[in-house]
Amino acid sequence: MTFLTLRRLSALVFCGCLALLLSAGCSRGPSQTELGVLEETEKATLAAEQQVAEKKATKAKLERKVAEKKAEMKAWKKKKAGTTKNLAKMSGK
After folding, report:
1. What's the pLDDT tens digit per position in 44-74?
2. Residue 1: CB partners within 8 Å, gap ≥ 6?
3. pTM (predicted TM-score)
4. CA angle, 19 as apex, 14 and 23 as ends, to 5°?
5. CB-facing half-sphere around the CA of 92: CA atoms within 13 A
6. What's the distance, CA 74 to chain centroid?
7. How far, in whole angstroms, is CA 50 from its chain's centroid?
8. How would DSSP label each residue in 4-37?
9. Which end of the chain has the smaller Cβ count within 10 Å, N or C?
């Protein structure tokens, strides 16, 4: 074989290998299975985000209730202190 023929043959083999690599390694897009997994993941993410929002709303509602109860308890303690003071005055007379 001549040098030029050998060079053409090696170039042809190289191009063939390159074409085989590119066609086997890359696809035109995601497969149906991959799309299905992606859709399921998106649904699960949306459901989890909705659940987080609901939990945050519940937490805020409970924190408001706790604040109301603390204010109510403070008012009752103040009233009790006043009543105790009045009772001490009445007992002292």
Report:
1. 999 999 999 999 999 999 999 999 999 999 9
2. 9
3. 0.54
4. 150
5. 6
6. 39
7. 10
8. HHHHHHHHHHHHHHHHHHHHHH--SS--HHHHHH
9. C
